[in-house]
Write the C-alpha coordinates for this entry.
Amino acid sequence: MQDRQERINKTLILTQTDPETDMMFKNWIQCGLHADILFNDIPKPLRAVRRVAINAKLPSTFYGIWLRKSWVRDIMKYDTFIIHAGDWTRNIATFIHSINQNARIIYWYWNVVNPLSTPNKVRDKNVEFWTFDPNDANKYGMKLNIQYYSPIKVNHVKSSYDIYYVGHDHGRGDKVRKFENQVKSLGLTTRFDLIPDNGRLIPYEEVCGRILKSKAILEINQSVQVGYTLRTMESLFMEKKLITDNPLTKKLDFYNPNNIFIWDGKNTDEVPTFLKQEYDTSVNKFKAKYDIFAWFENFFN
Protein backbone atom coordinates (compact mmCIF):
# COMPACT_ATOMS: atom_id res chain seq x y z
CA MET A 1 0.00 0.00 0.00
CA GLN A 2 1.23 3.48 -0.78
CA ASP A 3 2.49 5.49 2.16
CA ARG A 4 1.32 9.05 2.69
CA GLN A 5 4.28 10.70 1.00
CA GLU A 6 3.82 8.59 -2.12
CA ARG A 7 0.11 9.48 -2.21
CA ILE A 8 1.00 13.15 -1.84
CA ASN A 9 3.54 12.95 -4.67
CA LYS A 10 0.98 11.31 -6.95
CA THR A 11 -1.93 13.69 -6.19
CA LEU A 12 -2.60 17.16 -7.60
CA ILE A 13 -5.15 19.58 -6.15
CA LEU A 14 -6.66 21.99 -8.68
CA THR A 15 -8.59 25.14 -7.85
CA GLN A 16 -9.94 28.09 -9.85
CA THR A 17 -9.52 30.60 -7.08
CA ASP A 18 -7.23 33.54 -6.46
CA PRO A 19 -4.33 32.29 -4.30
CA GLU A 20 -4.17 35.70 -2.61
CA THR A 21 -7.61 35.22 -1.06
CA ASP A 22 -7.81 31.42 -0.87
CA MET A 23 -6.26 30.64 2.47
CA MET A 24 -5.90 26.95 1.77
CA PHE A 25 -3.86 27.26 -1.43
CA LYS A 26 -0.79 28.54 0.39
CA ASN A 27 -1.34 26.04 3.17
CA TRP A 28 -1.44 23.11 0.75
CA ILE A 29 1.94 24.20 -0.60
CA GLN A 30 3.40 24.86 2.86
CA CYS A 31 2.28 21.38 4.00
CA GLY A 32 3.97 19.74 1.02
CA LEU A 33 0.87 18.98 -1.05
CA HIS A 34 0.88 19.52 -4.81
CA ALA A 35 -1.55 22.21 -5.99
CA ASP A 36 -2.05 24.52 -8.93
CA ILE A 37 -4.46 27.10 -10.35
CA LEU A 38 -6.77 25.74 -13.07
CA PHE A 39 -6.96 28.65 -15.46
CA ASN A 40 -4.63 31.09 -17.16
CA ASP A 41 -4.71 34.66 -15.91
CA ILE A 42 -6.44 36.60 -18.68
CA PRO A 43 -7.89 40.14 -19.10
CA LYS A 44 -11.38 40.62 -17.68
CA PRO A 45 -13.11 41.12 -21.09
CA LEU A 46 -12.01 37.60 -22.08
CA ARG A 47 -13.29 35.94 -18.93
CA ALA A 48 -16.90 35.93 -20.09
CA VAL A 49 -15.78 34.24 -23.30
CA ARG A 50 -13.84 31.69 -21.27
CA ARG A 51 -16.81 30.97 -19.05
CA VAL A 52 -18.96 30.13 -22.09
CA ALA A 53 -16.23 28.12 -23.80
CA ILE A 54 -15.17 26.13 -20.75
CA ASN A 55 -18.77 25.08 -20.02
CA ALA A 56 -19.71 24.28 -23.61
CA LYS A 57 -20.00 20.71 -24.89
CA LEU A 58 -16.91 20.90 -27.07
CA PRO A 59 -14.18 18.35 -27.77
CA SER A 60 -11.75 18.33 -24.85
CA THR A 61 -8.92 19.75 -26.97
CA PHE A 62 -10.73 23.12 -27.04
CA TYR A 63 -10.39 23.51 -23.25
CA GLY A 64 -6.60 23.43 -23.22
CA ILE A 65 -6.13 27.02 -24.38
CA TRP A 66 -7.77 28.30 -21.20
CA LEU A 67 -5.88 26.05 -18.78
CA ARG A 68 -2.66 26.80 -16.97
CA LYS A 69 0.23 25.02 -18.70
CA SER A 70 2.13 24.45 -15.46
CA TRP A 71 -0.21 21.58 -14.52
CA VAL A 72 -1.40 20.51 -17.97
CA ARG A 73 2.11 19.49 -18.99
CA ASP A 74 2.37 17.30 -15.85
CA ILE A 75 -0.95 15.44 -16.12
CA MET A 76 0.77 12.08 -16.64
CA LYS A 77 2.82 12.54 -13.46
CA TYR A 78 -0.25 12.17 -11.22
CA ASP A 79 -2.56 9.28 -10.39
CA THR A 80 -5.18 11.35 -8.55
CA PHE A 81 -6.64 14.82 -9.16
CA ILE A 82 -8.72 16.64 -6.54
CA ILE A 83 -10.69 19.37 -8.32
CA HIS A 84 -12.38 22.08 -6.28
CA ALA A 85 -15.85 21.93 -7.78
CA GLY A 86 -17.31 25.17 -9.05
CA ASP A 87 -19.25 26.87 -11.81
CA TRP A 88 -16.40 26.50 -14.33
CA THR A 89 -15.05 23.03 -13.55
CA ARG A 90 -17.65 20.71 -15.07
CA ASN A 91 -15.50 19.73 -18.07
CA ILE A 92 -12.07 19.58 -16.43
CA ALA A 93 -12.34 15.82 -15.84
CA THR A 94 -13.07 15.25 -19.53
CA PHE A 95 -9.90 17.14 -20.43
CA ILE A 96 -7.72 15.27 -17.91
CA HIS A 97 -9.04 11.87 -19.00
CA SER A 98 -8.33 12.73 -22.64
CA ILE A 99 -4.63 12.72 -21.67
CA ASN A 100 -4.48 10.40 -18.63
CA GLN A 101 -7.20 7.79 -19.10
CA ASN A 102 -6.49 6.00 -15.81
CA ALA A 103 -6.52 9.08 -13.58
CA ARG A 104 -8.69 9.03 -10.48
CA ILE A 105 -10.61 12.32 -10.44
CA ILE A 106 -12.33 13.68 -7.33
CA TYR A 107 -14.68 16.65 -7.37
CA TRP A 108 -14.47 18.21 -3.90
CA TYR A 109 -17.34 20.51 -2.90
CA TRP A 110 -16.01 22.88 -0.25
CA ASN A 111 -19.17 24.96 -0.70
CA VAL A 112 -22.77 23.84 -0.93
CA VAL A 113 -23.99 22.84 -4.38
CA ASN A 114 -25.57 25.59 -6.48
CA PRO A 115 -27.48 25.28 -9.79
CA LEU A 116 -24.30 25.87 -11.83
CA SER A 117 -22.11 23.40 -9.94
CA THR A 118 -24.41 20.37 -9.58
CA PRO A 119 -22.74 16.98 -10.15
CA ASN A 120 -25.10 16.18 -13.01
CA LYS A 121 -23.46 18.94 -15.07
CA VAL A 122 -20.16 17.02 -15.06
CA ARG A 123 -20.03 15.22 -18.41
CA ASP A 124 -17.38 12.65 -17.44
CA LYS A 125 -19.05 9.89 -15.42
CA ASN A 126 -15.80 8.24 -14.31
CA VAL A 127 -15.35 10.63 -11.39
CA GLU A 128 -16.08 10.78 -7.66
CA PHE A 129 -18.05 13.47 -5.86
CA TRP A 130 -17.17 14.41 -2.28
CA THR A 131 -18.62 17.09 0.03
CA PHE A 132 -18.45 18.42 3.57
CA ASP A 133 -22.23 18.87 3.76
CA PRO A 134 -24.48 15.93 4.84
CA ASN A 135 -27.51 17.38 3.02
CA ASP A 136 -25.68 17.52 -0.29
CA ALA A 137 -24.22 14.06 0.34
CA ASN A 138 -27.72 12.62 0.70
CA LYS A 139 -29.25 14.65 -2.12
CA TYR A 140 -26.58 13.93 -4.75
CA GLY A 141 -25.14 10.61 -3.53
CA MET A 142 -21.76 12.10 -2.65
CA LYS A 143 -19.17 10.82 -0.22
CA LEU A 144 -18.53 12.81 2.96
CA ASN A 145 -15.25 14.29 4.08
CA ILE A 146 -14.43 16.71 6.87
CA GLN A 147 -14.23 20.47 6.83
CA TYR A 148 -10.55 20.99 7.62
CA TYR A 149 -7.87 23.48 8.56
CA SER A 150 -4.12 23.88 8.49
CA PRO A 151 -1.97 23.23 11.55
CA ILE A 152 -0.98 26.65 12.85
CA LYS A 153 0.82 28.22 15.76
CA VAL A 154 -1.66 30.22 17.84
CA ASN A 155 -0.61 33.75 18.75
CA HIS A 156 -2.84 35.19 21.44
CA VAL A 157 -3.25 38.96 21.23
CA LYS A 158 -5.32 41.46 23.14
CA SER A 159 -8.94 41.52 21.99
CA SER A 160 -10.12 44.60 20.11
CA TYR A 161 -13.78 43.52 19.85
CA ASP A 162 -16.04 40.82 21.23
CA ILE A 163 -17.39 39.18 18.05
CA TYR A 164 -16.09 38.98 14.49
CA TYR A 165 -18.02 37.94 11.38
CA VAL A 166 -16.81 37.58 7.78
CA GLY A 167 -18.65 36.16 4.80
CA HIS A 168 -20.64 36.85 1.66
CA ASP A 169 -24.30 37.69 2.01
CA HIS A 170 -25.70 34.57 0.25
CA GLY A 171 -29.17 35.33 1.61
CA ARG A 172 -28.11 35.54 5.25
CA GLY A 173 -27.39 39.26 5.48
CA ASP A 174 -30.60 40.11 7.34
CA LYS A 175 -29.92 37.41 9.92
CA VAL A 176 -26.35 38.60 10.42
CA ARG A 177 -27.44 42.22 10.86
CA LYS A 178 -30.20 41.19 13.27
CA PHE A 179 -27.68 39.39 15.46
CA GLU A 180 -25.25 42.31 15.35
CA ASN A 181 -27.93 44.80 16.41
CA GLN A 182 -29.00 42.55 19.26
CA VAL A 183 -25.52 42.05 20.73
CA LYS A 184 -24.68 45.74 20.34
CA SER A 185 -27.77 46.56 22.41
CA LEU A 186 -26.25 44.33 25.12
CA GLY A 187 -23.08 46.40 25.16
CA LEU A 188 -20.89 44.06 23.11
CA THR A 189 -18.50 45.28 20.43
CA THR A 190 -18.35 43.82 16.92
CA ARG A 191 -16.49 43.87 13.66
CA PHE A 192 -18.64 42.45 10.85
CA ASP A 193 -17.31 42.13 7.29
CA LEU A 194 -20.53 41.29 5.44
CA ILE A 195 -19.48 41.09 1.79
CA PRO A 196 -21.93 41.61 -1.10
CA ASP A 197 -22.36 38.48 -3.22
CA ASN A 198 -20.33 40.01 -6.04
CA GLY A 199 -17.84 41.61 -3.67
CA ARG A 200 -14.15 40.73 -3.57
CA LEU A 201 -12.89 38.50 -0.80
CA ILE A 202 -10.69 39.96 1.91
CA PRO A 203 -7.12 38.57 1.84
CA TYR A 204 -7.12 35.69 4.28
CA GLU A 205 -4.13 36.96 6.24
CA GLU A 206 -6.25 40.00 7.13
CA VAL A 207 -9.17 37.78 8.12
CA CYS A 208 -6.92 35.77 10.44
CA GLY A 209 -5.60 38.96 12.01
CA ARG A 210 -9.15 40.12 12.72
CA ILE A 211 -10.12 36.75 14.17
CA LEU A 212 -7.16 36.83 16.53
CA LYS A 213 -8.29 40.26 17.76
CA SER A 214 -11.76 38.96 18.65
CA LYS A 215 -13.12 36.97 21.57
CA ALA A 216 -15.54 35.00 19.40
CA ILE A 217 -16.35 34.22 15.75
CA LEU A 218 -19.89 34.25 14.40
CA GLU A 219 -20.97 31.49 12.00
CA ILE A 220 -24.27 31.87 10.11
CA ASN A 221 -24.99 29.06 7.67
CA GLN A 222 -26.68 29.43 4.31
CA SER A 223 -30.29 28.26 4.46
CA VAL A 224 -29.57 25.03 2.50
CA GLN A 225 -26.44 24.15 4.45
CA VAL A 226 -26.06 21.86 7.47
CA GLY A 227 -22.34 21.15 7.30
CA TYR A 228 -20.16 23.26 9.53
CA THR A 229 -18.14 26.02 7.87
CA LEU A 230 -14.56 27.23 7.97
CA ARG A 231 -15.53 29.42 10.93
CA THR A 232 -15.90 26.27 13.04
CA MET A 233 -12.39 25.17 12.12
CA GLU A 234 -10.96 28.61 12.82
CA SER A 235 -12.56 28.47 16.24
CA LEU A 236 -10.92 25.14 17.04
CA PHE A 237 -7.48 25.86 15.58
CA MET A 238 -7.19 29.49 16.72
CA GLU A 239 -8.75 28.71 20.11
CA LYS A 240 -11.53 31.25 19.74
CA LYS A 241 -15.11 30.95 20.94
CA LEU A 242 -17.74 30.18 18.31
CA ILE A 243 -21.30 31.48 18.06
CA THR A 244 -23.23 29.48 15.46
CA ASP A 245 -26.78 29.01 14.27
CA ASN A 246 -26.07 25.39 13.31
CA PRO A 247 -27.60 23.09 15.98
CA LEU A 248 -25.77 20.07 14.53
CA THR A 249 -22.53 21.53 15.88
CA LYS A 250 -23.51 19.92 19.18
CA LYS A 251 -22.80 16.53 17.59
CA LEU A 252 -19.15 17.35 16.87
CA ASP A 253 -16.67 15.48 19.05
CA PHE A 254 -14.98 18.73 20.05
CA TYR A 255 -18.22 20.44 21.06
CA ASN A 256 -17.83 22.13 24.44
CA PRO A 257 -20.46 24.56 25.82
CA ASN A 258 -17.67 26.77 27.18
CA ASN A 259 -16.39 27.25 23.64
CA ILE A 260 -19.43 26.94 21.36
CA PHE A 261 -22.74 28.77 21.70
CA ILE A 262 -25.74 27.65 19.64
CA TRP A 263 -27.73 30.76 18.72
CA ASP A 264 -31.40 30.05 18.03
CA GLY A 265 -32.49 33.65 17.48
CA LYS A 266 -34.09 33.89 20.92
CA ASN A 267 -31.18 33.42 23.31
CA THR A 268 -29.02 36.40 22.38
CA ASP A 269 -29.17 37.74 25.94
CA GLU A 270 -27.07 34.72 27.03
CA VAL A 271 -24.14 35.68 24.80
CA PRO A 272 -22.42 38.08 27.27
CA THR A 273 -22.30 35.33 29.93
CA PHE A 274 -20.94 32.86 27.37
CA LEU A 275 -18.16 35.27 26.42
CA LYS A 276 -17.07 35.61 30.06
CA GLN A 277 -16.43 31.88 30.39
CA GLU A 278 -12.84 30.79 29.87
CA TYR A 279 -12.06 28.94 26.64
CA ASP A 280 -11.51 25.24 27.38
CA THR A 281 -8.27 24.17 25.67
CA SER A 282 -8.88 20.47 26.37
CA VAL A 283 -10.41 20.30 22.86
CA ASN A 284 -6.97 20.87 21.34
CA LYS A 285 -6.53 17.08 21.26
CA PHE A 286 -9.00 17.00 18.33
CA LYS A 287 -7.01 19.30 16.05
CA ALA A 288 -5.11 16.50 14.33
CA LYS A 289 -8.42 14.86 13.38
CA TYR A 290 -9.44 17.95 11.39
CA ASP A 291 -6.22 19.12 9.79
CA ILE A 292 -5.19 19.10 6.12
CA PHE A 293 -3.56 15.68 6.34
CA ALA A 294 -6.66 14.08 7.87
CA TRP A 295 -8.75 15.54 5.03
CA PHE A 296 -6.27 14.33 2.42
CA GLU A 297 -6.03 10.81 3.85
CA ASN A 298 -9.82 10.43 4.01
CA PHE A 299 -9.88 10.33 0.20
CA PHE A 300 -7.75 7.18 0.30
CA ASN A 301 -9.12 5.39 3.38
In short: The chain has a mean pLDDT of 91.
